[in-house]
Design a protein that fits this description.
Blueprint (H helix, E strand, L loop, with lengths): L6 H5 L8 H7 L2 E12 L6 E13 L5 E7 L15 E8 L2 E3 L5 E2 L1 H8 L8 H26 L5
Parallel strand pairs: 3-5
Antiparallel strand pairs: 1-2, 1-4, 2-3, 4-5, 4-6
Length: 154
């Protein structure tokens, strides 16, 4: 009986958390655009084609208008966007169609900022730990050499 209480939550889909830069790298194309309209997909009750007007291409080759196939609403991993509202959209291509959804939707500012994150990531914690380990190793090596040098011969 208790298991049935959580069925509603279990049926909902969730997106894996990832920074916009990682999503951009993993996608086939990306753009900033505005939703023009949605159209039903013939023969599919749980799919819509979202037609966007592209304001700025961020990655890939996309025309001025792009048709993106997705689920219906955020619960079906479809887009969560209003008409004429700029949003960042990350796409994947399969069998000649563009696919996307709420997991590949970011704000326009986040998407544009993700293109500027080309600076290398420096792991300062790893560098500090590495220097400490090397320093400790050098200290113990020098200590061993000094001990052996001053030992009296039997």
């Amino acid at each position: 009986m208790l298991a049935l209480a959580f069925v509603g939550e279990a049926l909902g889909a969730t997106c894996a958390p990832a920074p916009p830069r990682a999503k951009l790298v993993a996608s086939d194309a990306a753009f900033v655009g505005r939703l023009l309209r949605t159209e039903r997909v013939p023969g599919a009750r749980d799919r819509l084609d979202y037609v966007f007007l592209v304001d700025q291409v961020v990655k890939g080759s996309i025309g001025r208008e792009v048709r993106v196939r997705s689920g219906i609403g955020a619960a079906g991993l479809g887009f969560s966007v209003r008409r004429d509202e700029a949003t960042g959209v990350l796409l994947n291509r399969d069998r000649g169609l563009w696919f996307g959804g709420v997991c590949g939707q970011v704000t326009a500012g986040e998407l544009v900022a993700a293109t500027r994150e080309d600076a290398p990531i420096v792991n300062w914690g790893g560098i500090v730990i590495g220097v400490l380990v090397l320093g400790a190793g050098l200290y113990f090596c020098i200590r061993q050499v000094r001990r052996k040098r001053y030992r009296l011969a039997p």
